[in-house]
Amino acid sequence: MGAIFVTDETHVNARPRDVFALFGHGTGAGWLFDASFDALRPGAVVRFRIPWPSGDGTLEATGRIVAVRQDSRIVLAHETPWRGRVICTLTPSGSGTRVRVVAEIDDTGIEWLQAMHGLDPPEPAAEPGTHPIGLLVSLSGSASVFAAASENVARMAVAEANGDGGVRGSPLRLVVADDATDVRVGAARMRRLVRAGCQAVFTNVTSATFDAIDPIARAAGVLLIYTPVNEGGRAGHGLLRLGERPEGQLSLAVPYLMRDSGGRRWYLAGNDYVWPRASNRQARRIIAGYGGEVTAERYAGLGTRRFDRLLEDIERSRADLILSTFVGADEVAFERACHEAGLRARVRTLSLALDEATREHVGDAAGTGLYTAFGYYQQLPTSENRAFLDRYRARYGCMAPPVSSISESLYEAILLYVAAARQTGGGEPAEVGRALSGSSLRGPRGHVRVAKPDLLEQDMHLVRAIPGGFTHEKTAERQ
Predict the structure, then answer these.
(1) What is the DSSP annotation of 345-387?
(2) Collapsing DSSP states into helix, strand and coil, what is residue 478?
(3) Which pairing describes strands 265-271 and 172-178: parallel, antiparallel, or unpaired?
(4) Among 68, 168, 341, 373, which is most exposed with the fewest C-beta within 10 angstroms?
(5) What is the 3-state secondary structure (H, E, C) of 231-293?
(6) CA distance 23 to 31
């Protein structure tokens, strides 16, 4: 894999110890120094904003601390929007400090940067004898929080399938594209996957992007498999909607939280697109069915980072419980703001998109006590899950981003697809889609079955966030 290295350095009129102390304190000392993290230690997740010549002048990025040498060196691993490393060294220089930053950008990062500047990267070269499939994920933008693990598990599934013979002797070839959590970008990237000859495209983008790529896949005759929690809708042999449904999540969580907390007044808050609105329609019905009431329902656009007015409105509402349908970085910002405002002490929150990666970015302090409901969580005590995580860490290292239902769903979907493609001899996409209906798999989340093109039967688990992960509260079987 190729890479480029970008180097810059400056002189600061302060001692290395004082310059090093600026990291993570939001002092305006620069993009790297203003990174946000809960602990300056190897393995800790990092959020930072890179200078960018559009929008508000910055670009959201996530990474992980790889190494720290007190007062002299910090190494970060980029996870999104590209893979690479950032090395910052501090050395004494006269009465001050020489600060040197070296940023590594791999070849996929170079392609991503070209695309974001309007320069389409070269079309993926045809590789005769392979079975191309597409992966559309949010490597950048608000939903990028769980993208690194999504790409990892997809590549892992492809490697395992190829180790077992691929599809009738043809190795799978994974073509990855980034929708940037943007509807227009997602549509353009979907067209690129079609031109690359992908017979199927797997995706866990937001429902907003999904609605834009569905007609493109349909017109091209490409099998589209949507794997994350979603609101349901049109499905068939050319389109499968797997993943949890809000009704299953809410039917498990709402009565439990109302009984356990003694509260009945709910505040509904989330991003302004189809999935949050559909989830809240279900929530109103289920909450009313258990004798609760909704005090308010408010939405904010994707990319929102300031929630002052929303938090004031929640306080005024005297709600006992919050249902959050914010996604990715927006959910991170919302939950951290709730914690800082003291809401966590008296209001319980159920978040329908709080996966492991999002919880990690929210942080232990701000995240502890949050509830969510999914078909998979990383601490799921099954032998299949333990073996899966062992393989994942052996392939990507002990500091690889955590796996969650939103990312793991891609792994199982690809393996289900491979089994169906083998059954049909690698036939037309719609034929493979027909074979997928009724298929089953015993994987990391237990036994799952594609009961219909729009229904994946699976167990549902209500879990509560604790430092380092989740703890189990209750399970509903075969949702």
Answers:
(1) GT-EEEETT--HHHHHHH-HHHHTT-EEEES--TT---HHHHH
(2) coil
(3) unpaired
(4) 168
(5) CCCCCECCEEECCCCHHHHHHHHHHHHHHHHCCCEEEEEEECCHHHHHHHHHHHHHHHHCCCE
(6) 10
| DSSP letter string, 91-149 | EEETTEEEEEEEEEEEHHHHHHHHHHTT-PPPPPPP-TT-EEEEEEE-SSSGGGGGHHH
Question: Are 61 and 81 in contact, with CB atoms under 8 Å apart?
Answer: yes
Q: What is the rounded distance in angstroms from the CA atom of residue 287 to the CA atom of residue 265?
A: 9
Q: pTM for the complete prediction?
A: 0.91
Q: How many CB atoms lie within 10 A of CB 206?
A: 28
Average pLDDT over residues 217-234: 95
Summarize pLDDT for 39-74 with one digit per residue, the tens. 889 999 988 877 777 666 777 788 899 999 999 999
* Other Cβ atoms within 10 Å of 112 Cβ, number: 22
Nearest-angstrom CA–CA distance, 135 and 149: 13
Q: What are 339-364's pLDDT values in tens digits?
A: 999 998 899 999 999 999 999 999 99
- Work out the mean pLDDT of the chain and round it to a whole number: 92
pLDDT tens for 429-472 read 999 999 999 999 999 999 999 999 999 999 999 999 999 999 99
pLDDT at 140: 84
Locus of tokens 């701000």: 366
CA 347/CA 68 separation, integer angstroms: 37
Which long-range contacts does 391-396 make (Cβ < 8 Å, 24+ apart)? Answer: 391/156, 391/160, 392/152, 392/153, 392/156, 395/152, 395/156, 395/159, 396/152, 396/156
